[in-house]
Specification:
alpha/beta; 7 helices; 5 strands; single chain
Length: 192
């Protein structure tokens, strides 16, 4: 029912709340942002969500930042109270895709609770990286001295987008710090 060999958050919720019905729509390696060369974006599957959802527990961003998806920028429309719902977002950047995801959930599930889980920060790179533009081409945009700095930028951006869309978040990196790739928690949960 969930990604990562049934070790994701949906699995944990199902095990601890057996009367709940949980769905997992992601697979290992999927990203939030769309890509022109693949169908591994969480946005590509939003139409598969059932109609009667009470609560969304979302997570994502690690694979986007680790594969140098362009981060993008938060859109701040100023033309009326419905401006956020009428705005368009660049779904080929991480922030644009995250905003689009939240917009669609807020519009289609106005009564559902939405919680975003920021995973613990994972060690994956120490070399400088280049951002990719929204088409996947490497560009000399912002260069980060470590993968950790890039991850901090993504996590800070997720918090800002969550605040904009009134999405509560749980930042496990504040409690768990840095973990190695493939490390599981004490109860067997895959932190990514």
């Amino acid at each position: 029912i969930a990604p990562n060999n049934n070790k994701g958050y949906g699995y944990w919720i199902q095990q601890n709340h057996p009367t709940s019905i949980c769905y997992g729509y992601a697979k290992s390696g999927w990203k939030v942002a769309r890509r022109t060369d693949s169908n591994d974006s969480l946005l590509s599957h939003i139409e598969q969500y059932p109609n009667d959802v009470d609560c969304f527990v979302l997570s994502g961003g690690y694979n986007d930042q680790a594969t140098q998806v362009a981060i993008g920028e938060i859109v701040e429309p100023t033309d009326g109270s419905d401006a956020y719902f009428n705005a368009t977002f660049d779904e080929y950047t991480f922030i644009g895709a995250l905003e689009s995801w939240f917009k669609q959930l807020r519009k289609n599930y106005p009564n559902a609770k939405i919680v975003y889980v920021l995973t613990p920060k994972r060690i994956y790179a120490t070399n400088p990286v280049f951002n990719n533009d929204s088409k996947g081409d490497k560009v000399k945009d912002v260069i980060y001295s470590t993968g950790y700095e890039r991850m901090n930028l993504f996590w800070d951006s997720i918090k800002k987008v969550c605040k904009k869309w009134s999405v509560k978040y749980l930042d496990l990196s504040e409690n768990r710090g840095i973990v190695g790739t493939g490390e599981l928690t004490g109860d067997g949960l895959d932190v990514n």
